[in-house]
Amino acid sequence: MNVQVQKSFESPSGVATQAGYGTLFLVGTPIGNLEDMTYRAVRTLQEVDIIAAEDTRQTRKLLTHFDISPGKLLSYHEHNKTASGPELIRFIIEGKNLALVSDAGLPAISDPGSDLVKLALEAGISVVPVPGANAALSALIVSGLPTERFTFLGFLPRDHKEREKLLKSLEDQEGTMLMYESPHRLTKTVESLLEVWGNRRIVLARELTKRYEEMARGTIQDCLAWLQEHPPLGEYCLVVEGAHPDQVKEKRDAWWQQMTVEEHVQHYETKEGLTRKEAMKKAAADRGVAKREIYNQLI
To answer: Distance of alpha carbon 290 from its chain centroid, rounded?
Structure first.
């Protein structure tokens, strides 16, 4: 049995790890309001030997606010992780404690921190979470949508076809969906949600914990119309209602469920004498997708 067990707080130094090794701390930072910084996070950043940051300029402001020396600050981001990651691991193996922070929120979520965690675990280094604010969960708990089950999607693919493919694979998921989006892609993403998932309830949350914090709640269609009058500003977290259980069951039990798209279309052509175009339109209606999607699968 190959099981690795980490007991984080059983050694005199507070963390059990390989002899001589330091520890990798994943430190949550505020997503806007600096008062959301925890006492433990401040103490950890004060005590570690090295702080690895996604954006050193942003983190330097945070450290200055809490009177923490910026002299131990190193850069670790998407564009230098291949070279910087092994170097940071070497420092920890030499006995230095290292704190990883992102620009805002929890590191290793939608940022390269997850790669550093993998390297650390492969090297036998203990990885300890120092929890803090998180935009996706903050948006979820104020959304008014179910919180029992949810799926975090991060940023959706930029490419329209890839985005639709992902959304299509999740259209029958009953849990609430969480995702991030930039202001210049927000409208296109919401349009894709409407096209693939239908007119569900949605919350558009922006500037969480900041002065201009705002939540727009409504159906996808209503929020699209609202965006026409209120152009997107700042980063957004989208919270989207999951599929309705009755609709999922109805679709699962549908007579055409075991058919391929081609068989489905042929059924209407042969059994009901419809033209190819009419058969494709009817099959699309059955499956709850755009006719264009049926056409694309048949060409």
So the answer is: 27
pLDDT at 13 exceeding the cut of 70: no
- Nearest in space to 188 (alpha carbons), one of 223, 160, 148: 160
Contact yes or no for 38/131 (Cβ under 8 A): yes
pTM of the model: 0.80
Q: What is the mean pLDDT of the chain?
A: 90
Using pLDDT thresholds of 50, 70 and 90, give the confidence band for residue 12. Answer: very low
Whether 153 shows a pLDDT value over 60: the answer reads: yes
Structure tokens at 231: 């152009």
Who's near 167: CB < 8 A, 6+ residues apart? 156, 192, 193, 196, 197
Residues in CB range of 241: below 8 A, 6 or more apart: 145, 146, 176, 177, 200, 201, 202
Q: Which of 100, 67, 273, 243 minimizes the C-alpha distance to 168?
A: 243
β-strands 98-101, 127-130: how paired? unpaired
Q: Could you give the CA distance from residue 133 to residue 59 in angstroms, rounded to a whole number?
A: 15
What distance lies between CA 236 and its chain's CA centroid?
Answer: 11
Distance CA 181, CA 190 (A): 10
Range ranked top by mean pLDDT from 7-11, 146-150, 241-245 = 146-150
Residues 6+ apart with CB under 8 A from 74: 50, 51, 52, 53, 56, 84, 88
Distance CA 70, CA 54 (A): 14
Q: Residue 253's pLDDT is what?
A: 65
